[in-house]
Amino acid sequence: MTETTASPTTVSRTAAAIDAAKARGGAALVGYLPVGFPDVDTSVRAAKTLVSAGAEVIELGFPYSDPGMDGEVIQRATQTALDRGTRTADVLRAVEQVAQTGAAVLVMTYWNPVFRYGVDRFARDLAAAGGAGLITPDLIPDEAAEWIAASDAHGLDRVFLVAPSSTDARLRMTSAACRGFVYAASTMGVTGARTSVDSHARGLVERTRAAGAERVCVGLGVSTGAQAAEIAEYADGVIVGSAFVRTLAREDGDVEAGLRDLGTLGEQLAAGAHRA
Amino acid sequence: MTATPSREHPQHLADAAGPYFGEFGGRFVAEALVAALDDLTAAWEELKVDPGFLAEMDHLNRTYTGRPSIITEVPRFAEYAGGARVILKREDLNHTGSHKINNVLGQALLTRKVGKKRVIAETGAGQHGVATATAAALLGLECTVYMGEEDVRRQALNVARMRLLGTEVVPVTTGSRTLKDAINEAFRDWVTNVDTTNYIFGTAAGPHPFPAMVRDLQKVIGEEARQQVLDLTGALPDVVCACVGGGSNAIGIFNAFLDDEGVRLVGLEAAGDGVETGRHASSITGGEPGVLHGARTFILQDEDGQTVESHSISAGLDYPGVGPEHSWLASIHRAEYQPVTDAEAMEAFRLLCRTEGIIPAIESAHALAGAIRIGQEAAAAGQPAPTILVNLSGRGDKDVETAAAWFHLLDEDQHDDVPEAAGPEDAAKTGAVDDAPYTATGSVEK
């Protein structure tokens, strides 16, 4: 068991970004986009567009060949990114460029690419690129001793997920292991926009707070400003992924129009999250 | 909550129970699945020693599966293995035609115990899918099987069998459209429907408790075979050969011999065109430690940790990972893992057909090729002829089209319907209709 709590001397950049949004009276907008879709440079521009639209935290997806937690929209995008040759070095370069905006930049990735790169080496290079930390959808704290040590050594945030099926004991253990925020997967399922966010989300956030989490953000299924506003009533952050990716992935391949539409959607979701 | 994993070796190798086998195993999964995996672990710990369950399994084994499966000594085939004594464990004679039914019946009964009415499964060659569809029909469970689109094409007969049994077969169009992608899709279904659905995993891989549970359900193969060989020969076999994709038939037959130091255990991996060509499925021989489908184990990956597509003429071995217990047994040198190319496997396939009247699954032909190699090596080294036990894990009905194409046995106008898994161009020259053993691979000359 690895119930390591964050060192009190470590300042979480992600927590600071979320707290700034809360100080203004709402919740933070956390936007996900995969690096390399439709190409590396455009994905960097897209992430910067979301920051301009009001997102406080950016999740940059590290494309992986076997994304077992992703729904169709994100899977197709990350497959495109891989088909076009996106590499680990591209992810680190994208982190560096997006971090220059001042947003907290987290990398979201399955575990094998980090394991393969070298856990401590990845932490060192991510920190050097200005990254805030890592979200690990297939790495639970039970298996994360190496990553917990590396993230402590390099001052990085670590975001683990909780789910409606998590027991109270696991919520306590996961909340203690997280730094930055706890990612509450609102529904039992994979990523993808849904017409209504499951009512499980509110209960899960309450249970996670009761288990000791300071900040809880809700993801999986959010696509509209109204949904964001609803979640902002009880969560510290609203995580949006597939809706952004779908907007960027225009069938006609018009990149500029995709970026424009992304900015518009980002503003709507930011307004909802910020309860503006 | 998961207990602290024990990475120490158990007192008896055969008792290794997970979640870790040495440095391999674990649970690299979405948090949403942890509760279901905990439930399965607890239910299995209870069930596997429950007298009622054991009696039900025993009854099904005797009256439905056809256990114990027999052993068959194959002296005509053995002539090509340097004169070794070769004994086959006939899992091909099980109901549904392979060892897969052993595992599936146990997990289907477990599904009933945890109160779920729907099962899902993944399948490559279709053997596991057919077994799951069979068990679902027998126990009245709803069943969905995920199968890569490429495998749906290669294994049309098994797709039809599953549909006849009332199962929904879903072709998977992502990634390489083979087994690994079917597993991804099954995990997605499971994480979405875990309240109502149990995932009947097909091999001794994946997150804990699957590797240990599947091994527990397959070890009957080794337990029977160990006693049968003792009864027949008065001694343990010198060598046990089994093919390894995910590795469930191999771990099942190895288990009974793990603590018999004198018994050499050899897993035969699919080498496709040859490990050196990069077109292969030899995860231990040609892979590196990594994480895939929920476990830390040997996998085929590139330098960025992206999974590399595997290749084998055998859809059932065409998988870029391997069960974590095999990775452990390799790391402590208790079992050895050798690659067998498509050509070597097909020659062994042909030999068994011609010399013994048994058409094996192409998966199992890899194990037969291993026996030929090991027997010949012993003969060349002037050692006494070894007794080699080979797990004949499945029968070859599903592979007849692939084999017919490889050996160019069909009339020209039938070729359009033949899978492209046909062999190299020179396969035609191998004399498939010639009685003499061909020597194209240099490995089977008498």
From TrEMBL, chain A:
Family recorded in the similarity comment = Belongs to the TrpA family.
Which molecular function GO terms apply here? tryptophan synthase activity
Q: Which residues form the active site?
A: E59 (proton acceptor), D70 (proton acceptor)
What top-tier enzyme class does this entry carry? Answer: lyase
Q: Which Pfam families match?
A: Trp_syntA
- Pathway where this protein functions: Amino-acid biosynthesis; L-tryptophan biosynthesis; L-tryptophan from chorismate: step 5/5
Species of provenance: Georgenia soli
Q: Which GO terms describe its cellular component?
A: cytosol
Protein known as: Tryptophan synthase alpha chain
Relate the assembly described in the record: Tetramer of two alpha and two beta chains.
Q: What is its EC number?
A: 4.2.1.20
What does the protein in this record do? The alpha subunit is responsible for the aldol cleavage of indoleglycerol phosphate to indole and glyceraldehyde 3-phosphate.
Task: Give coiled-coil spans as residue ranges.
Answer: none
Give me the reactions it catalyses: (1S,2R)-1-C-(indol-3-yl)glycerol 3-phosphate + L-serine = D-glyceraldehyde 3-phosphate + L-tryptophan + H2O
Automatic annotation (TrEMBL), chain B:
| Pfam short name (any one) | PALP
Record's protein name: Tryptophan synthase beta chain
- Encoding gene (name): trpB
Under Enzyme Commission nomenclature, its number is 4.2.1.20
Identify the pathway: Amino-acid biosynthesis; L-tryptophan biosynthesis; L-tryptophan from chorismate: step 5/5
Please give the NCBIfam families that the UniProt record associates with this protein: trpB
Q: Which cofactor does it need?
A: pyridoxal 5'-phosphate
- Provide the GO MF annotations for this entry: tryptophan synthase activity
Catalysed reaction, written as an equation = (1S,2R)-1-C-(indol-3-yl)glycerol 3-phosphate + L-serine = D-glyceraldehyde 3-phosphate + L-tryptophan + H2O
Q: Which organism is it from?
A: Georgenia soli
Q: Where is the Tryptophan synthase beta chain-like PALP domain?
A: 67-394
Note the HAMAP family from the entry.
Answer: Trp_synth_beta
Q: Which UniProt keywords apply?
A: Amino-acid biosynthesis, Aromatic amino acid biosynthesis, Lyase, Pyridoxal phosphate, Tryptophan biosynthesis
Which portions of this protein are annotated as coiled-coil regions? none
Function, as annotated = The beta subunit is responsible for the synthesis of L-tryptophan from indole and L-serine.
